[in-house]
Write the structure tokens for this entry.
Amino acid sequence: MEVIERYARNLQGSYEPLRRARVAICGCGGLGSNIATALARIGVGYLKLIDFDAVEPSNLNRQNFFESHLGQDKPLALQEMLHNVNSEVQVEVEVVKIVQENAPALLQDVDIICEAFDNPKSKAVLANICRTDPVLSSKPYVGGSGMAGVLSGNTIRTRRLAKNFYICGDLEFSGADAGGLMAPRVLICAGHQANMITRLILGKDEVDDE
Amino acid sequence: MQNVVVNGKDVPGLSGKTVLTGLNELGFDPETVVVEMNGEIVSVSDFDQIIVPEGAVLEVLRFVGGG
């Protein structure tokens, strides 16, 4: 397939910055699988997929996997999905749980860190590491918090809470609070995160336009 | 005595306590938050060491589950 055809509907001038961009997707569930797919479609050159879970039936209501992936490690299943979407993207896989000790080594070679965990404690651990580690705190961090249920989609926003620190979501409602997690609203948050990452790659670090 | 401000709201009686005690009293699970005090991130390992001074401004970001 001709590159020029594939990206004919992408923004003019976006090909090179997207191709050069390196993004880590921390968690390959409802957020991560959909964020990674969006970034692969537009031609982000390098994605590092990190997760330790396997695909389960309860994931299929919102996560970008097929029934044929059941039982597979999520990063490997997602790597196959992404290969089918855009085989030009370099996808690296780490089947591991991100903790304080391994985070710097796992994340030092990317430009942007995307937090896409389900568990709030894991979200806090990664956010705290990335805001205090001298190397990681220099990289933009785009996380998610609050995208459950069928509450209004309009309450999901992208906020910049500090330099290099972006959080998307309603910041309020967990899956337990809202009675479940459903593809439409999870994808709204995934879309916010993928869009903020794309804006950062294209040199826009503000969450709003002028 | 100047109150401590947490997420934009005055909270009496918090100064002199550790960050950890403050979080617990305010109903935050210390394992799900990022805490900024007077513009600086407080390391999780220091939550039980660092004392909240009078008039401190705290921003507590609480993460919720789902993804």
Observations:
- The helical segments of chain A are 3-6, 15-20, 30-42, 74-85, 103-107, 120-132, 175-178, 183-201.
- The two ends of chain A are 37 Å apart (CA to CA).
- The first helix of chain A runs from residue 3 to 6.
- Chain A has a mean pLDDT of 97.
